Amino acid sequence: MLIDSHCHLDPGYFKEGPEAVIERANAAGVSRFVVIGVGEDLAPAHFAIDLAARRPDVHATVGLHPHDATRSTDELLAEIRVLAARPEVVAVGEIGLDYHYMHSPRDQQQRVFRDLIRIAREVQKPIVVHTREAADDTLALLEEERASEVGGIIHCFSEDRPFAERALALDFDLSFSGIVTFRSATAIQEVAAWAPADRILVETDSPYLAPIPFRGKRCEPAHVAHTARFIAGLRNEPFETLAEHTAANTRRRLRLPD
């Protein structure tokens, strides 16, 4: 059974609620869900925690997306720290740097990224990293803030092999989304084919980045099966083997129960 290691299920994306979405994913062979608690405020974090509290197949994260770095205050960071310590929360994230849209200035993104890495180290939980067009700065900050003490996941991996090698050395696993199925994603496909079997995860980032053949439609956790099958083909291994490895890797990295 597959695990979707990164999905957004809060009402801002799925107005009908998560239950039917989860049922469709179960039918597609997806058994667990890591629900990401980030947004313009902490409502998605509370939603993810509440969902995880009542469903043993759901696990939550909390963080502050780099798009929203300008919203950071001492009070907000203090509340994130309290939430991050909750037993339902398995990681701090997604956090990181995004220089594509620049919704927040670079210096503010970097400062908040540092703050959140420190929170992850304080609560001793792994980090879920968002990085876009910020590869060098992302790796530099992870090194400077000793993120390898807790390790984590490079979410929606979209870099090249040199980045992957440095991330792996820092104890970060590589999570592949539907982007890997895109025709133009040759560098990502090369990494997915090469990466160590015990260091790869699969995700949807739903409702974004639906894999082929659903590209352009709303992505759902059920679609992670298509991404996993594609990666299994790249690696010339059975789908069941890829599913087993990625699920085991997710459980290990996020310390999920068997």
From TrEMBL:
InterPro entries: DNase_TatD-rel_CS, Metal_Hydrolase, TatD-like, TatD/YcfH-like. The keyword Metal-binding applies. It holds the Pfam family TatD_DNase. Coiled coil: none annotated. A divalent metal cation 1 binds at residues 6, 8, 94, 205. Keywords: Hydrolase, Metal-binding. It comes from the Bacteria. A divalent metal cation 2 binds at residues 130, 155. GO terms for cellular component: cytosol. GO terms for molecular function: DNA nuclease activity; hydrolase activity, acting on ester bonds; metal ion binding. PROSITE patterns: TATD_1, TATD_2. NCBIfam families: YchF/TatD family DNA exonuclease (TIGR00010). Belongs to the metallo-dependent hydrolases superfamily. TatD-type hydrolase family. This is Hydrolase TatD.
